[in-house]
């Protein structure tokens, strides 16, 4: 029943774009409505979703040019895999599996009086190794990893399925 619907690249582009808007919307909801300030790695995790949104829109626009749409969707798969890598790295930092970047885990203390004055001007930035929110023991970075990886695998499978039915 779903199969004929996803056989067109423009429709897969729509799914990719809607997923990107949903993920970015949830991230912004937690930041602005719930008051959870993102750390540097949290912000880096959003970049692949912005790219995926653009690629999804390109695939929608390329529905009359299936090759363009297919290239955009293939790049979408790679983008989501890159997003899964960033999110997996961040989740590993949160769970203490490996150290995070020095500027994000509180390891970079000011080495000069000027640096100390700058650090004291505002609230400290959120640390990348803190888990400000979790559900069932999985942090937001962990969910982003699962969604990014799952999205990449589903998009790849849908593209293969669509390609088989066109051939």
H-E order:
HHHHHEEH
Stretches with pLDDT under 50, minimum 5 residues = none
Helix share, percent: 55-70%
Tell me the fraction of residues in β-strands, as a range.
under 5%
Mean pLDDT: 83
Give the helix tally: 6
Structure description:
Helix content is 69%, strand content 2%. The chain is built from six helices and two strands; from the N terminus they run H-H-H-H-H-E-E-H. The longest helix is centred in the middle third of the chain and has 29 residues, at 66-94. The protein is elongated and about 60 Å long. The model has no long low-confidence stretch (mean pLDDT 83).
List keywords for this structure.
167 residues; mainly alpha; two-stranded antiparallel sheet; 2 strands
Could you give a quick summary of the protein structure above?
This protein has 167 residues and is mostly helical.
Tell me the layout of helices and strands.
Blueprint: H1 3-6, H2 9-33, H3 40-61, H4 66-94, H5 113-120, E1 134-135, E2 138-139, H6 140-166
Antiparallel strand pairs: 1-2
């Amino acid at each position: 029943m779903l199969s004929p619907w996803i056989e067109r690249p423009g429709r897969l582009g729509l799914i990719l774009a809607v997923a990107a808007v949903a993920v970015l919307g949830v991230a912004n909801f937690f930041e602005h409505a719930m008051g959870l300030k993102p750390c540097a790695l949290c912000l880096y995790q959003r970049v692949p979703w912005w790219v995926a949104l653009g690629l999804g829109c390109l695939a929608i626009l390329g529905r009359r040019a299936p090759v363009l749409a297919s290239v955009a969707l293939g790049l979408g798969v790679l983008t989501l895999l890159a997003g899964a890598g960033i999110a997996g790295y961040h989740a590993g930092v949160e769970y203490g599996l490996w150290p995070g970047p020095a500027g994000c885990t509180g390891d970079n203390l000011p080495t000069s009086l000027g640096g100390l004055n700058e650090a004291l001007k505002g609230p400290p930035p959120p640390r990348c190794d803190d888990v400000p929110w979790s559900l069932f023991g999985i942090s937001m970075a962990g969910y982003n990893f699962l969604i990014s990886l799952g999205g990449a695998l589903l998009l790849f499978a849908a593209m293969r399925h669509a390609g088989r039915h066109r051939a």
